[in-house]
Amino acid sequence: MNRLRWVINGGIVAGLVGLSLVVYGLFGDVPRMLQQPKLRAFEAKMPLPPEGAVPVEMPAPVVFVKGDAANLARGKIYYGYYCVQCHGDNGDGHGPVGESYNPAPPDLASPKIQAYSNEKMVDAMLNGTGHQLENDGFHVVRDTIPPQHIGYVVAYVRAFAAKK
Asked: Same structural domain for residues 148 and 73?
C-alpha cells in the first residue's frame, strides 16, 4: 500500500512539474513569433560590396551600325551565334532547327522583313514568334544576345536583300 501511495504521489508531482513547464512555455519569458523584432525593407542597411567587386551596368542600348565590310563581318559572326540554327546560312528559314518549326522561320531577305524599320526588326528579333518559350517565360533571343551585338545582326540581315 505504501508503494502505491509512493507511485501516486510521484505521478502527481511529475504531472505538476509537467503542467508548470507547459504554463511557463505558454506564458513565460519564451520568444514567440509575435514578439520578434520587425525590419521593414526601407529600414534595411545594405552591406558594402566585397572588396574587388565589379559593378554591373545596365544593358547597353541597341546601336545600329552601317553596313560596311567590317560591320558585316562582325554581323555574320553574331548571326552565326544566335540566328543560323533557325534561319539558315542564307536567312531563308532552312536552318537545322528551323526545319522543325511550324510555321517555318521567315525568309529574312523577303521584302516584308526588309521593309521593317530597324526598331521593328529588333522587336521581331527579340519578341517574335518562336523566340520565347511559352511555359517558362524565357525569351530565347532577348535573354541570350547581348544588346551590343544586335545592331550588327540587323546590318547583316539587311545585307541578305543585296544577295538576292
From this structure: yes
Q: Do 29 and 83 form a contact (C-beta atoms < 8 A)?
A: no
Tally of domains in the chain: 2
Would you tell me how many other CB atoms lie within 10 Å of the CB of residue 121? 21
154 or 99, greater pLDDT: 154
Tens-digit pLDDT profile for residues 57-77:
776 788 999 999 999 999 999
How much is the pLDDT for 119?
Answer: 93
* Nearest one of 81, 71, 86, 80 to 131, comparing CA atoms: 86
87: exposed, middle or buried (Cβ count in 10 Å: 0-12, 13-18, 19+): buried
pTM over 0.85: no
Domain annotation covers residue 156: yes
Task: Quote the domain boundaries for residue 83.
Answer: 69-163
Are 14 and 92 in the same domain? no
